[in-house]
Specification:
9% helix; 156 residues; six-stranded antiparallel beta sheet; Maltose phosphorylase, domain 3; 2 domains
Length: 156
């Protein structure tokens, strides 16, 4: 399969092989810009320090969508972010690779509603900042849930 974003979706077909390179850029940045937005904004996977030693997961929840998911293979391992909303609740599942610290930002109306793996998150581990619960974590898999304001899109 392709490892870059091609200019044309039919740049290679089983029937004809590769298309005419005069009409098909095999690394087409125009589409790549959209892809970056999907990872860093919609899924919220972003770096805080070079090389992803410290990362941030702060997805845009809402925007007319009820779920989104993405994974990103960095030099340190694979990050994953998947969120969904239903009935005023948000669920955010995150994977942080080994030897990485991360800030997880969960849209949250009230810290009392914030859960990780079904258990309440202690107030000492999270802070509420402008409608977001910020939690600092190490490597691992996490599943956060919280009540959030479904009436507006939450931007990252």
């Amino acid at each position: 399969g392709a490892t870059t974003v091609w200019e044309r979706w039919n740049g290679w077909t089983k029937e004809n092989g590769p298309g005419d390179p005069g009409m098909n850029s095999y690394s087409h940045y125009a589409y790549g810009a959209c892809c970056e937005w999907l990872f860093t904004d919609l899924a919220g996977i972003d770096l805080v320090e070079p090389g992803y030693a410290v990362a941030r997961i702060r997805p845009r929840v809402g925007l007319g969508l009820d779920r989104a998911a993405a994974s990103y293979r960095s030099i340190r391992g694979q990050f994953r972010s998947a969120w969904s909303t239903k009935d005023g609740q948000v669920e955010l599942a995150v994977t942080i690779p080994p030897n990485v610290e991360a800030e997880i930002w969960v849209p949250c109306r009230d810290l009392a509603t914030l859960r990780e793996g079904g258990a309440a998150v202690a107030a000492a581990k999270a802070e509420l900042v402008d409608g977001w619960a910020r939690v600092r974590v190490g490597s691992g898999d996490y599943r956060f849930t919280a009540a959030y304001e479904a009436k507006r899109a939450v931007a990252g």
